[in-house]
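Supplementary Note 3. Input sequence used for the single-chain structure prediction.
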Amino acid sequence: MRTTSMPTVQRLPGRRTGRSIGALAASVASSVASNLSHLGSTSTSHAPPADPPPSYSPTPDDSPPPYTPGSSVTSSAADPPPAYTAVPAGGFDPRELTDFQLDELVHRIIGRITRLIRTELRLDRERIGRLRDPRP
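The predicted structure, written as discrete structure tokens, is reproduced below.
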């Protein structure tokens, strides 16, 4: 790989830097072009395929192929769902919670869920470009 020295860009205080940026961009573009032309000359070019692809020939019948369901689908559909099993003795049954216990459980969970939902809504607003919530 060839290395080319880049011209030094000097800026005077208080002057616009448009000319120096343009000179730097031109220098970079020329060095990239020379490197790419050097790389392109050593690589092999892609040859077109020897045979053209076969031409399209529509089928005489445009209907879809016939459907044949598998045997596993019919046997699983015929089986009834499992029956409800009672909660074993000493196990947790959520239906036995009192109103106070339900309220306490909700208050423990709601803070975490609210924070996660607010974060998701904020990320959605950032994604669509509306950073402020227009609601009052």
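The two ends are 62 Å apart (CA to CA). Residues 96-136 form one domain.
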